[in-house]
Amino acid sequence: MAISPTLPITLHTLSNRSAKQLLSDLTTLYVTHRTCISRTVYIALFAALVHRIRNAIKEQKAAAARAAEARRRGPTLSSGGGEVTTGSGRKKVELNREFFRNLGRLLRICIPGWKSKEARLLVSHSVFLVLRTLISLYVAELDGRLVSSLVRGKGKAFLKGLVWWMIVAVAATFTNSMPSYHQTTLSLAYRTRLTNYIHNKYLHNMTFYTLSALDDRIKNADQLITVDVSKFSNSLAELYSNLAKPVLDLIIYNWSLSRSVGGEGLFAMSLLVQLSASVMRALTPPFGKYVADEARLEGEFRFQHSRLIDYSEEIALYAGHEAEKDTLDKGYFTLIKHVNRILRRRFYHGVMEDFVIKYFWGALGLMLCSVPVFFKLPSTGTGGAKSDHTESFITNRRLLLSSSDAFGRLMFSYKEISQLAGYTSRVSTLLEVIADIQRGHFEKALVSSASTEANASVLSGRGELEEGEDIRFQDVPIVSPNGDVLVKALSFHINRGDHLLIVGPNGCGKSSLFRILGGLWPVYGGKVRKPPSEDIFYIPQRPYLSKGTLRQQQILYPDTLLDMRAKGVTDRDLIAILQSLGLESLLGTHMHNSKAGYSIDSLISPTDTRASRSSRQETAGLDLEAEWTDVLSTGNQQRIAAARLFYHAPKYAILDECTSSVTAETEKVMYDEAKRLGITLMTVSHRKSLWRYHGWILQFDGQGGHVFTRLEAEKRLRLEDEREELDLRLRGVPEIEKRIAELEAGG
């Protein structure tokens, strides 16, 4: 093959040419074909973007299909201890379609419409973000002019520019402060909306009870509502600023830079930045999952302390402080171990980010800023003076620093998005579980002693529930909180006025029966007819007394003063109720609230007339505030519960050992007055003195059986007395036989 004679000459010519001349020729060649190169680059960029979006959509569709398949399979029972687990296991926090769907759902709650306060705040926030970017762009140009005047030695122009700089600074500082104010205000607005929404759901139809009693997917609802909602709101408000501002800055600053250094150079640098950013993203730990796990461990640790406070007396009596200390130390150690792991990961990740963002990208930026100095491009102007180069370099450098800072904040926002994903997952899980519970779907780990499969079939069923004036149970299974079926088919029927006594050993199903009557538990089978929940009143052995006044928080609870007036009840009626129960001492002027620091006398104005003062003195005790659980004895607490019952006067009342700490005289007053008010009584008690107040008895044997029959109190008392007498005689038989044996031996 012949070699062209011109090739050695060309190589020799290239070797003799300097690198600067070669670079100049390449620049000239680039400028000549710049239009074609630009179009090729932008078309390739657009094609790569479309390809990436298509791949992302395909991945999200595949993930959604897997999640739908897992939901279709539904919950399954584990073969070990009968624990209910879902097919998908624990949720994995990812930036996927589920995250955006959950975030969109929460956003519709936080921003209910474009005319809402939150939407107006968001628009105002956006306006100030744009103004802040435009002012920063103008300040960059002003900075270049000042340095140019300084290099040229024009003192008058420099001083004039400096004065104008200070004037612009006034508007700039105000504009720079407004986004922070809007961010905080938005966070509070989001939290208010979300908290109100959750409270309406959580405190509706006994959801707060069923969430903890019938479902174990949410271990610490208080942590989610108080802490995680706040963190989600803060993260969401911060994320808008940390995303919208950097994106806007990147667009405006890069557009300004492209006018000075050329769009292709900017694209080349952006390509290198994207490559390094992809490497960083691949090496970034799953901070979203870490945040969700940390919040869960924080909630569990807090729950352990709350449990210690709730059961402090029992733990103290058992001397279980060492065991509780071990449990708390273990919970804290697990939490701190996880936090330290996050800190180590963040340290290594921070070192990598700092090097890439500050130094590697800074070097690329300096190379980009040098383009107008060393090369003459059509878009960079014709100025060739040193001062012009200085002004251009300073302006471009300022724009590049701002653009780099914006891109850095955009990169850092990936961690913030991951954290937001963690908070979004936890808050969304709470809302999903609440919605499931309100639809009647529960998931609970079964730890019953019986067959898990047999109990699961009962728990998965649902019976019929209808409202009526009477109470009828027909073949209704009674289930314990841990999943044991205590009674397979309970059947009984009472009408108004048929007072029912319920007896049986502990754990036989009495409390579960009351939970069904109160509407707390679902009907797992059979048929139940009962009055509405507001017509059934429940009084436990230790009643619930909240902090507040004697009138509203104790006697009227859960009614308000408006409800009391609507019923036509006056303060004198309440005083009469208290006096009938022997609680008039609570109304005396000698009562003093040591915690609040005032007595009843302080509630009476010295300017009142004698008549109004006397009337006010009679009712002033009802306004006394105290922590009544600490102030009153157990017996007086049960009397307060009876006063609450007399005020409400429901159609049915469930009395669960509610007279265990009162005298026989007070017990008689309570039952006589309740029957006089037309209240049908359903009593759980083993006290024989209460038999005469009831006409029916429901007796559980503790083995799954029950007897429902009419109660003849006098006859039953005679039989019971006879049985006790026979028991006493039988206990004396061994002594008699022993004595007979001694007499026979002595004879």
UniProtKB/TrEMBL annotation:
Domain ABC transmembrane type-1, residue spans: 127-344
In this chain the ABC transporter domain maps to: 471-728
| Signal sequence region | none
**Molecular function terms from GO:** ABC-type transporter activity; ATP binding; ATP hydrolysis activity; long-chain fatty acid transmembrane transporter activity
The processes (GO biological process) annotated in the record are:
fatty acid beta-oxidation; long-chain fatty acid import into peroxisome; peroxisome organization; very long-chain fatty acid catabolic process
Gene Ontology CC terms, in alphabetical order: peroxisomal membrane
Q: What are the record keywords, sorted?
A: ATP-binding, Membrane, Nucleotide-binding, Transmembrane, Transmembrane helix, Transport
Q: Which CDD domains match?
A: ABCD_peroxisomal_ALDP
Pfam annotation, one family: ABC_membrane_2
Instruction: Map out region (Disordered) in residue numbers.
Output: 68-88
Q: Which family does it belong to?
A: Belongs to the ABC transporter superfamily. ABCD family. Peroxisomal fatty acyl CoA transporter (TC 3.A.1.203) subfamily.
PANTHER family in the record: ATP-BINDING CASSETTE, SUB-FAMILY D MEMBER, PEROXISOMAL LONG-CHAIN FATTY ACID IMPORT PROTEIN 1
What is the protein named?
A: ABC transporter domain-containing protein
